[in-house]
Amino acid sequence: MKAKVFFAMSCAALLLTSGCVNVKPWERGALSDYTMRPDRDPLGAAQSEHIWFSREQSNGGRGVGGGGCGCN
Amino acid sequence: MNMPALNKKFLFTILSASLLLTGAQFASAALKVGDAFPDLFAQKLEGKLPESLKGKVLFVDFWASWCAPCAQSFPAMEELQKTYAKRGLVIIAISVDEKDAAMQAFLKKHPASFAVVRDAAHKLVSAVDVSAMPTSFIVDADGKVRFLHNGFHGDETKKQYITEIESLLKDKP
Fold first, then answer.
1. Who among B3, B102, B133 is closest to A25 (CB)?
2. For the whole model, what pTM was predicted?
3. Is the predicted pLDDT of residue B1 greater than 50, yes or no?
4. CATH number of the domain that residue B79 is part of
5. How would you class B59 by CB atoms within 10 Å of its CB: exposed for 0-12, middle for 13-18, buried for 19 or more?
């Protein structure tokens, strides 16, 4: 039984400690593509911002308290 | 925990192996100042290299079409070519673009009169293990890396290029 636990722990350790990926500088072409930019679509960005603002306002999102109704 | 000795050993081995494997990908064999620059003719680069590089001072630049500082560095390299080619400097720009079309589109915008080749398989750039784009190596007539630049910082970098190239061309027999 104990051996099984140790084996499972070892497998978990292998999975957890080898999961890091280092993207090399010459492999960053896809990451620097225009489509990866969050501001590539101004209308979409404005909509997302409005949704975020409405949702988070009750928690003081963007520094102003109150709201949360999504009506501003 | 009362752990049998064998299991302890087993666990230790597995953990050590996993840590070693994880560390291996961060281990760097990056080319540094003083090292011999790899033979460019042995790298299966796409494009035409100058016929002979032996005894020449080389300026080898790794770049990509998607890299903004690389676009800024091209006019500087063009200036170096115009000034120092006749004195024996050879500039080789090695693109790491995955698509040839992307490289050609870049070259239309930023024409180059120096040699431009492509390391499509990323074999050379992996061996050299550059830490930024662009990275430039200034190699002396004996084939040794004498200066190394990570990134391009406008006029400041250009001035350094000029000082370093001048010093190597002076040393040249």
1. B133
2. 0.75
3. no
4. 3.40.30.10
5. buried
